[in-house]
Design goal:
Oligomer: single chain
Shape: globular
CATH topology: Jelly Rolls
Number of domains: 1
CATH architecture: Sandwich
Low-confidence stretches: none
Strand order of the largest sheet: 1-13-10-15-7-2
Number of strands: 15
CATH class: Mainly Beta
Order of helices and strands: HEHEEHEEEHEEEEEEEEE
Mean pLDDT: 95
Length: about 220
């Protein structure tokens, strides 16, 4: 098509210039580090992670009141002796700007991460117990959950009280993680990713298969003003 504009201004010249460059459609299927999302040196066996997921789901099904909205959780840690989990245990405090007022508001009650110090005995002996033990040797680990995101699904745009470690178990190239202005794919290859979810963030699954991550909250003392 040979289009001749009726007049040429700054906007026309800008669009014509942008049309001369093809967007990158290759690197978006890989991990790109950026502010708030970094890959650790620590790695786990991806096949054993997937086997552990299957084994745990044979013992217990995903929980949570938001399963109809595509979000479900499997609690790997608990308060000592805990036998029941509230929806607040599975989700926890977060903040968001929900409407055109752009006012930040809290949702749900705060969860004391350090209380979730015991590995869930229902999943004792699985590879997930080994993962939790290795993480706990290195970091103050709070709630550790397996989080599932359905296809064509997105979390709210929110921030949490603490950062998280993510270990993708099943993923697809359309599964993305966004922290503030940085977005990238987290491949399910046994890698461990630091995600600074104290910043505004979301996880989305734009693919045709379920996205499942092991997610461990980091229970460091909060920064003081």
């Amino acid at each position: 098509m040979s289009f001749v504009p009726e007049f040429v201004d700054r906007d026309v010249r800008a669009v014509q210039s942008w049309m001369q460059t093809r967007p990158d459609s290759q690197s978006v299927a890989t991990f790109t580090p950026g502010p708030g999302i970094q890959k650790l040196a620590l790695e786990f066996d991806i096949q054993r992670l997937r086997d552990a997921l299957d084994e745990c789901l044979e013992r217990e099904t995903f929980k949570g009141a938001m399963q109809a909205q595509g979000f479900a959780a499997l609690p790997l840690t608990q308060r000592p002796g805990q036998t029941e989990w509230t929806d607040n245990d599975l989700s926890g405090r977060y903040w968001l700007r929900a409407d055109e007022r752009y006012v930040e508001e809290p949702r749900e009650a705060s969860v004391p991460e350090a209380e979730f110090s015991e590995f869930n005995p229902k999943f004792s002996g699985t590879y997930f117990e080994h993962v939790h033990r290795e993480l706990s040797k290195r970091f103050p680990i709070g709630r550790t959950r397996v989080l599932s995101k359905d296809i064509y699904n997105c979390n709210s745009w929110h921030r949490d009280p603490e950062p998280r470690l993510h270990i993708p178990i099943t993923s697809n190239p359309g599964s993305l993680f966004v922290v503030n202005h940085h977005v990238t794919h987290l491949p399910a290859d046994g890698s461990v990713y630091f995600t600074d979810t104290r910043g505004y963030h979301t996880a989305l699954n734009g693919g045709e298969t379920r996205r499942v991550h092991l997610v461990a909250a980091l229970a460091y003392d909060p920064l003081t003003e």
